[in-house]
């Protein structure tokens, strides 16, 4: 968990993903299209990826990917991000975190 805490504080938006996950791809595309420029960690391509995945499961990410942190806080996975987007809350959240300047 300490490793995740450190990683999510380095950027306004952090996504834990797997390169083969279509929902991860969708969330990455959505946030990048907004201009959020998230830090993306592909757990199937980085060292300690399996360890990070287990830690994400322990903190309540189910499934473990995509796991999106905004402003250092766990927001959730694809369902939560899409719900925030559809109700108009995602962009203001990204702005508050400093991920968007407009």
TrEMBL record:
Subcellular location, record wording: Cytoplasm
Keywords from the UniProt entry: Cytoplasm, Redox-active center
Domain Glutaredoxin, residue spans: 13-75
Pfam families in UniProt: Glutaredoxin (PF00462)
Listed transmembrane segments: none
UniProt KW S-adenosyl-L-methionine keyword: no
Main localisation: cytoplasm
Origin superkingdom: Eukaryota
Family as reported in the entry's similarity comment: Belongs to the glutaredoxin family. CC-type subfamily.
Name the record gives this protein: Monothiol glutaredoxin-S2
Lineage: Eukaryota, Viridiplantae, Streptophyta, Embryophyta, Tracheophyta
Gene it is expressed from: LOC104706171
């Amino acid at each position: 968990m300490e490793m995740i805490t450190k990683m999510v504080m380095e950027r306004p938006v952090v996504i834990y993903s797997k390169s083969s996950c279509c929902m991860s791809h969708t969330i990455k595309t959505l946030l990048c299209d907004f201009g959020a420029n998230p830090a993306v960690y592909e757990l199937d391509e980085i060292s300690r990826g399996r360890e990070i995945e287990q830690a994400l499961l322990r903190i309540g990410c189910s499934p473990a990917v995509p796991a999106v942190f905004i402003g250092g806080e766990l927001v959730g996975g694809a369902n939560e991000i899409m719900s925030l987007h559809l109700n108009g809350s995602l962009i203001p959240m990204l702005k508050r975190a400093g991920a968007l300047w407009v």
